[in-house]
Amino acid sequence: MTADTNNELTHHLGVAIGSIVVAVLLWGVGYRGQRVVAAVPFFILFFVMIIGPLVRIRPSIRRRFSGNVPVNWRSELGIWFAIWSVVHVLFVFWARDWDVIGYLVDMSPWAFGASVAVLIAIVLAFTSNNRAYDYLGPKAWKWHQSHGTYVIFWLVAVHGYDRAYLRPYEEMGFPSDDPLHLLYLAMIVVVVVLHVAAFAAVVSEYRKTGEYPPDL
């Protein structure tokens, strides 16, 4: 699985248009403002997280398409995750009348984790290009991007779990029954299952051939 940092304009347009379509659909079913701009980056992150394990589990996916598809979409997806995440943060500050200091002082641990995730996403977005790839080198760049993405996912997953389960349980005595919250939890489970399956596939190949996949 090779890295791709070309940042194709067509890919950026595709992700931008796709994310706007998702936002419009969420708005159409009744979600508003902050809920929409929180959901869109979560969906984008979901796709970022499943591309790798899907390709690892089913290598035939890449053979069906030319140009390193779908791996070569991850850079653009990651950049737009960062963009939408920043928009979400701005909506949060706007909802609190731009009392940024007050929000930072009173934020929950889960919100703090999500804020750290946004900062990491911004760093990854600014280094998701050929210039950073050449400067850091393939190994360091891949380590930086992959580890940063995993940290982001788990911080955002805990934040989503807080919104879908912990906070509603504290306030009402039972988890949220909001379909969007349930979808968040389902996507977290899917990501975990796929990554475990991909790890098992790598170990299985090693046990059979004595070697790891060359692009690992």
UniProtKB/TrEMBL annotation:
Q: Which keywords describe this protein according to UniProt? A: Membrane, Transmembrane, Transmembrane helix
Transmembrane helix listed as a keyword: yes
Source domain of life: Archaea
- For this protein, the parts annotated as crossing the membrane are 12-30, 36-57, 77-95, 107-127, 148-166, 181-203
Which protein are we looking at? Sulfoxide reductase heme-binding subunit YedZ
